């Protein structure tokens, strides 16, 4: 049972006729105030570089000011129609998302598809994430070959994301952090993704964006 995610443990207990053992609290619940404070600290300390908190379905729950400012820049300050709640996969694949600003989009898209297919938060895949993946692979302009990728094939240790906006260039790589020893389903499924600059140009551009906020 030690390697079974809390959500699945609850499911197994229910099937065996027992009550669920682990709560699945809303992130804004009073009992999680300390955790929210910790998340806010992590996001704030990542400034002036983007950071976000997402769940196991890749829905974006929180972002820092740098992420909001950076993605507003890529959207040219306009609200564009990307379906559903804010979701990393939808924003990266949808024609009205950030796809048109990603210089190495084919490489990034392939890495994301492989990651969703093999990634398991706590050890098991998330059905909703796979449904969203099927959805985004049907978006206009998405190569059909992405549907038949071998998720088990070795990939590069780091896949940078290179954004272009006008004459500006940004290159980031990211790290993903989870909370240690959680006893709540919601907390176990949280992921904190922090983006770090690949070069001095990105570092300088990020600082300029912060100065203009």
UniProtKB/TrEMBL annotation:
Pfam family membership, one: MLTR_LBD
Domain of life per record: Bacteria
MmyB-like transcription regulator ligand binding domain sequence ranges: 35-209
InterPro entries for this protein: MLTR_LBD (IPR041413)
UniProt-listed PANTHER family: BLL4672 PROTEIN-RELATED, BLL5781 PROTEIN
Record-given protein name: MmyB-like transcription regulator ligand binding domain-containing protein
Species per Swiss-Prot/TrEMBL record: Actinacidiphila bryophytorum
């Amino acid at each position: 049972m030690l390697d079974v995610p809390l959500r699945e443990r609850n499911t197994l207990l229910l099937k065996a006729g027992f009550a669920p053992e682990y709560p699945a609290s809303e992130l804004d619940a009073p009992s999680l105030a300390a955790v929210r404070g910790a998340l806010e600290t992590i996001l704030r300390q990542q400034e002036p570089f983007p950071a976000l908190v997402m769940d196991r379905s890749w829905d974006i729950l929180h972002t820092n000011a740098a992420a909001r400012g950076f993605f507003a820049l890529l959207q040219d300050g306009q609200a564009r129609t990307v379906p559903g709640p804010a979701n990393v996969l939808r924003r990266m694949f949808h024609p009205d998302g950030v796809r048109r600003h990603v210089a190495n989009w084919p490489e990034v898209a392939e890495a994301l598809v492989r990651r969703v297919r093999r990634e398991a938060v706590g050890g098991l895949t998330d059905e909703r994430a796979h449904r969203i993946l099927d959805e985004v692979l049907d978006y206009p302009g998405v190569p059909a070959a992405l549907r038949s990728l071998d998720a088990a094939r070795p990939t590069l240790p780091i896949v940078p994301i290179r954004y272009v906006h006008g004459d500006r260039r940004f290159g980031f790589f990211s790290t993903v952090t989870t909370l240690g020893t959680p006893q709540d389903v919601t907390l176990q499924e949280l992921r904190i993704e922090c983006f770090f600059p690949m070069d001095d140009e990105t570092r300088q551009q990020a600082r300029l964006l912060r100065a203009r906020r």
